[in-house]
Specification:
By secondary structure, the protein is α+β, with helices and mostly antiparallel strands. It has helices at about 40-50, 70-75, 95-105, 110-120, 135-145, 160-165, 170-180, 230-240, 245-255, 255-260, 305-320, 335-345; strands at about 5-15, 15-25, 30-35, 55-60, 65, 155, 180-185, 185, 200-205, 205-210, 220, 265-270, 275-285, 290-295, 325-330, 345-350, 360-365.
Length: about 375
C-alpha cells in the first residue's frame, strides 16, 4: 500500500481547469519523482496531496487513511512535511529556535543539534535565515521533516536540484531517518532510475506512470458515451452471477445517460490498458440524498483495492453535489461488498416500505460530514 496517494484529483482556478483526473502513488522508503511540462499541474497536485490546497474532486490517502478534503494541519500531525517551493522561514528567528519550535509542536524526539548535525548545519544553528545560503535554507526546511514524526516530505523543485541532493546523500538520509519519501517536481525527460524509484509524468492534468516495473494502476475517469457497452456488460455479469438481475436493473443498464446522468448523477469508469475494468455511479435519490449504484470491478482487476477507490470517488462526488447522506441497496449474497461499505462507515438501516428490488435485503446509509479533514 502506498504511504501517500492522491487519486483522481480534479482542480480548477475559476474557469481554468488545472487537473482533470490526476493521480499519484508513492511507497514509503523511496523517492518518487513527478515530472511534466510547465503548467501541467505538478505543483497543484503536490499541494493537494499534502493538504495545502483543496481539490474539487478526488481522494487523498495518507498512511492508509482516506480524506475527502485533506488539510495540511491534519496530515502534518500524522507525519506529512510539505516543502513548498518558496521561503517559509522566519527571517528574525535563529535556525536553532525554529527547529526547536517544530520539534515541540510535533513531539519530535530529535534535538535541534541532532537534526542540524545530520544535515551538516551545526555551524548555522545560531544564524538568522537571511545569512544562510540557498542550499543551507533548503536543508533546514528538510530538517523539520526528518524527525520521527516526519514520514513523508513532498517538495517542489527542478531535477537538477534533485540530482545534487540525491547524490550528496541528504535525501537518502531523510528517507532512512523517516521511513518516508520525497516527491520532487521536475520537467520531462528526467527518468534516471538512480534518482527516483519510480516516476510519474503529468500531462494535461492527468497521470501516467513512467518506467515502473508494476503495471499502471487503473485510472478512474468520468463516463464517456463509448463506455455504455462496458457499463452494461460488467454490471450484467455480476448481477447474473449472484442471481440478482431484475427488470429495475435493466432500466439503468440500458440507458445510463437518461437514467443516471440527465437527472444530475455521475458515472465513473476505471480504465486499465484502454479497457474498462470497473464502474460506479451516484444518482440523486431524495432531497439531500444520493444513491451509489452499479459499483463493480472486473474479475481480472480485483484484489487491488479498486472497489474501494470507486466507492470513495462516489463519496467525493456526493459531497461535491452537496448531499448530506449517501444510501445504497445491496444483498447478503455480496459479502465482500458489504464489508467494504462497512469499513467506509455505512450503517445498516431497516428496509423501506416500498422496495424497488425484490432480491435486495440490505439497506445502508452514510451521513456525510462536510467539515471533515
Amino acid at each position: 500500500m502506498p504511504l501517500l496517494e492522491a487519486d483522481s484529483i480534479g482542480k480548477s482556478y475559476g474557469s481554468r481547469r488545472v487537473l482533470a483526473s490526476a493521480s499519484l502513488r508513492a511507497p514509503a522508503g523511496s523517492v518518487t519523482a513527478l515530472v511534466g511540462a510547465n503548467g501541467a499541474g505538478k505543483s497543484t497536485l503536490l499541494a493537494v496531496a499534502a493538504g495545502w490546497r483543496r481539490a474539487d474532486t478526488g481522494i487523498v490517502r495518507f498512511d492508509g487513511v482516506s480524506y475527502l478534503s485533506a488539510r495540511l494541519a491534519t496530515l502534518a500531525g500524522c507525519g506529512m512535511f510539505y516543502l513548498p517551493d518558496r521561503e517559509i522561514l522566519s527571517p528574525g528567528i535563529t535556525l536553532r529556535r525554529q527547529l526547536d519550535a517544530v520539534g515541540r509542536r510535533y513531539g519530535s524526539a530529535a534535538s535541534a543539534e541532532a537534526v542540524a548535525g545530520d544535515l551538516g548545519l551545526s555551524d548555522c544553528l545560531d544564524a538568522l535565515p537571511p545569512r544562510l545560503s540557498g542550499g543551507e535554507t533548503r536543508r533546514r526546511l528538510r530538517g523539520g521533516g526528518v524527525g520521527p514524526r516526519g514520514r513523508c516530505a513532498p517538495r517542489g523543485g527542478g531535477p537538477r536540484h534533485l540530482v545534487r541532493r540525491w547524490n550528496d546523500g541528504r535525501i537518502r538520509l531523510a528517507c532512512a531517518r523517516s521511513g518516508g519519501l520525497a516527491i520532487p517536481a521536475g520537467v520531462p525527460g528526467n527518468r534516471d532510475p538512480g534518482i527516483a524509484a519510480r516516476a510519474h509524468s503529468l500531462i494535461p492534468g492527468r497521470y501516467r506512470p513512467m518506467g515502473t516495473t508494476e503495471g499502471p494502476a487503473p485510472e478512474i475517469i468520468p463516463f464517456r458515451i463509448g463506455d455504455a457497452e462496458s457499463f452494461y456488460r460488467l454490471n450484467r455479469a455480476w448481477l447474473d452471477e449472484h442471481g440478482l438481475y431484475e427488470a429495475a436493473d435493466e432500466t439503468q443498464l440500458a440507458d445510463p445517460v437518461g437514467e443516471i446522468l440527465r437527472p444530475g448523477g455521475a458515472i465513473f469508469v476505471a480504465v486499465a490498458g484502454g479497457e474498462v475494468v470497473g464502474t460506479a455511479a451516484v444518482v440523486p435519490h431524495a432531497p439531500g440524498e444520493v444513491e451509489i449504484v452499479k459499483l463493480t470491478v472486473a474479475d481480472a482487476a480485483r484484489g487491488q483495492g479498486l472497489g474501494r477507490r470507486l466507492a470513495e470517488r462516489c463519496l467525493a462526488q456526493a459531497k461535491a453535489m452537496g448531499a448530506r447522506r449517501v444510501v445504497l441497496v445491496s444483498s447478503t449474497r455480496l459479502g465482500a461488498a458489504l464489508r467494504l461499505y462497512e469499513t467506509l462507515g455505512f450503517q445498516h438501516v431497516p428496509a423501506p416500505d416500498d422496495p424497488v428490488y425484490a432480491t435486495a435485503d440490505v439497506y445502508m446509509n452514510l451521513d456525510l460530514d462536510h467539515d471533515d479533514g
